[in-house]
From TrEMBL:
PANTHER family: NADH DEHYDROGENASE [UBIQUINONE] 1 BETA SUBCOMPLEX SUBUNIT 10 (PTHR13094:SF1), NADH-UBIQUINONE OXIDOREDUCTASE PDSW SUBUNIT (PTHR13094). It comes from Cetraspora pellucida. It comes from the Eukaryota. The keyword Electron transport applies. Residues 6-33 form a coiled coil. One of its GO terms (cellular component) is respiratory chain complex I. Belongs to the complex I NDUFB10 subunit family. This is 8619_t:CDS:1. Its main location: mitochondrion. Keywords: Coiled coil, Electron transport, Membrane, Mitochondrion, Mitochondrion inner membrane, Respiratory chain, Transport.
Length: 128
């Protein structure tokens, strides 16, 4: 490497270090504005825990808040089932594409799981 290339790399490194310091200053300012805030990257996901509440059949219909909580829980559980089925389906499609003619043998467990999840979903749908 020539001296010019080394100097260019040193300049870029100094510039990146300066940008990192600026980001640290901004993060410190953000934390001072919101002391309980957590700085997360855009790819990080926080999981929210919801309290377990009685089902719609078990709740007193005159208690509006309890009915709403039961409905919200039912919707969350429904979407969890739907997303679980979607994830398994996507894995199955990917397996079919990667395994080619051997997909009958190599993707059988995923296919069985997908069918089982669909049956559970349909049986829970009939109960509603």
């Amino acid at each position: 490497m020539s001296n010019i290339e080394v100097q260019i790399l040193k300049d870029k490194l100094a510039q990146l270090e300066k940008e990192i310091q600026e980001i640290d200053v901004l993060n410190t300012e953000l934390l001072s504005l919101r002391p309980n805030a957590q700085i997360m990257a855009s790819w990080e996901y926080t999981h929210k825990e919801f309290p377990k509440v009685p089902t719609l059949e078990e709740v007193d219909k005159s208690d509006v808040e309890a009915v709403k909580a039961a409905k919200d829980q039912q919707v969350r559980e429904y979407w969890i089932k739907v997303m679980e089925i979607r994830l398994v389906r996507n894995q199955l499609i990917k397996c079919y594409k990667t395994e080619g003619v051997n997909h009958y043998k190599n993707c059988k467990k995923l296919a069985d799981l997908y069918v089982e999840l669909l049956k559970e979903y349909n049986s829970s749908k009939e109960k509603r």
